[in-house]
Amino acid sequence: MIPGISRRHCLVSLTAGPTAWLAMPGVAHAGGQVEEPLIDSVRTALSSAIANHAPPEPDFPSTEARLHYLRWLGTMSDRLRRRKPDWEVRRDFLQTVWYESKRAGLDESLVLGLIQVESAFRKFAVSSVGARGYMQVMPFWTRLIGDGDPGKLFHMQTNLRFGCVILRHYMDRERGDLYMALGRYNGSRGRAPYPNAVFAAQRNWLFAAG
To answer: What does the CA dihedral 117, 205, 169, 28 come to, rounded to 10 degrees?
Structure first.
């Protein structure tokens, strides 16, 4: 079981098998995922992964696991304070990042790094190709695996849910190759600038448990 989330909500596998573009406030300049055909089994798995809209309340198997989360929350909150000054907004955002990252089997520092590069932590960011929100999700995903309403991509949990599920899907497609999965996420598969930018940003969000 992944700490912080119950087993039945874990997304283990969905298939068988710095930042010049962030200069303008309110606009994201990252690329976007390329729409690709999905076989029925993958579409069904992704749709199921998106569908559960339970509140992002972590469930801890032990006191130590909860204390670890609280230490992480405090540390990340301090680092995020400049970008999100309001404590409650910051707490809700970080709790949701934690929940959705764990649910999708992703490292939360990776997700935070990706958000930094994609949207600079701006909830309503829109890229030149139409990608939306924190994780810059392309609207076509709501048609492929959601309810068809791209406006919901500006909802915090919905955007983080889609983004984490999509990145997990790409990691499965690339057989665990994170470099290639990040390129696919950005629509720049095989090119170095985007994965390198995410890896560099990820270092800002690493957490030493000790």
So the answer is: -20
